[in-house]
Amino acid sequence: MTAAANRSWKSSVRARVRKHAWLYLLGLPGMLILLFFNYLPMGSLIMAFEDYDPWKGLLHSPFVGLKHFQRLFNDSKFYLMLWNTLKISFFSLITFPAPIILALLLNEVRSGAYKKTIQTAVYLPHFLSWTIVVSLTFFLLSSEQGLVNKIIVSGGGKARRFLFDKSIIYLIIVIQSVWKGIGWGSIVYLAAIAGIDQGLYEAARIDGANKLQSILHITLPCILPTIAVMLILKMGSIISVDFEQVLLMTNPLVKEKLEVFEVYIYQNGVKSGSTQFSYTTAIGMFKSVVSTILVVVTNRIVSSNGMKGIM
Description:
mainly alpha
């Protein structure tokens, strides 16, 4: 870059900052939070390549290279944890369209009071802790006190131990996740739908299009960029699960199915009282690298299909 071009670029930047000073000031708290809680802690990732000693600190702990990653890949539980995590995430990915469908249905509700009532009902679970959600699940599915089993027994059937059944534990977890997150997830799509030009719907009605045709040929194509961005972000968390949910749903009979990285990190780095900081950091770094690769690949696929990604 030549000196003249460099001066021109700096002048342009200063002009934009002056013009939008209040907007930058408004975004400053969020940027500072992002800096201090997301970017600065990344310096501690060097711990994954050391035998970290809290007394010596990051700069003086002995460097061991890829020792902890080798230990992770040679761990007998590694592939079991990876497989369990991918299965839970795959089932969660199948439910990705659920908030979209809910947003489409809510958009068709014309009664304002009725719509607000439904929105309140479906948004509320998002604000419940996983402890409450799992407690409600126990209340419904417990083999002795569960409401579902009481209904089955009253109908002449035999009580079933739902919470101890390996064959349906993933289904229970996915239903919990959908119930808790579907309402909150639909907000983004409702906002995208609200931004669609109403003239398109009027033109469609004049041409004789019905509700379903309007949804298929106007609403969905218009919110497709939003769906693409949300899918990219979803892929970034495909190797992660809700730690609290899985931990609280774990019992000795389904433990093998719910052995995932998050619980493993908790048991080895926190619960046991050990100081395996470097090893658990290596596990977290492995997950982050895989998530980044998935985001980049998904973004590339989206961009190659003519849609705007996040990069």
